[in-house]
UniProtKB/TrEMBL annotation:
Domain GST C-terminal: start-end pairs: 1-143
PANTHER family according to UniProt: CHLORIDE INTRACELLULAR CHANNEL PROTEIN 6 (PTHR45476:SF1), CHLORIDE INTRACELLULAR CHANNEL PROTEIN 6-RELATED (PTHR45476)
Name listed for the protein in its UniProt record: Chloride intracellular channel protein
Subcellular location(s) per record: Membrane; Cytoplasm
Catalytic reaction(s) noted: chloride(in) = chloride(out)
UniProt organism field: Micrurus lemniscatus lemniscatus
Length: 143
């Protein structure tokens, strides 16, 4: 979707980069809020039921999606693009900024956990310590 492409660039690009490279404590809160806003947009998308999840003939009112991935229960190219970036953000933000995705972001956690259940994801994803090492020179210490 168009939303997805724009959101991916927004989430994985400038917002995360500014947050992780920032050295000023007085700016950190603003950058964290900006990252949270982007994550929340993704979370809302992941929790919004897709049309195929809603049965027009059912009396059930589906208010939260249960799908595993962006476009349903199967991995797509879009997932293969977003999931590694999302995982890197999770690992690096925790290590260098003590920032964790809020537990209330159930769509994001469902999405990540479904990826972690897939061999093709865990077998191609670098170990957390490798990701942390790769960001040692990028992530700046707060002053």
């Amino acid at each position: 979707s168009v939303w997805f492409g724009a959101s991916l660039a927004y989430l994985g690009g400038a917002n995360f980069s500014a947050f992780i490279k920032n050295t000023r404590e007085d700016v950190n809160e603003h950058l964290e809020k900006t990252l949270l806003k982007a994550l929340n947009k993704l979370n809302i998308y992941l929790n919004t039921p897709l049309p195929e999840e809603i049965d027009a003939n059912s009396t059930e009112d589906i208010t939260v999606s249960t799908r595993k991935f962006l476009d349903g229960d199967e991995l797509t190219l879009a997932d293969c693009n977003l999931l590694p970036k999302l995982h890197i953000i999770k690992v690096v933000a925790k290590k260098f900024r003590n920032f964790e995705f809020p537990s209330e972001m159930t769509g994001i956690w469902r999405y990540l956990n479904n990826a972690y259940d897939r061999d093709e994801f865990i077998n191609t994803c670098p170990a957390d310590r490798e990701i942390e090492y790769a960001y040692l020179d990028v992530a700046k210490r707060m002053k």
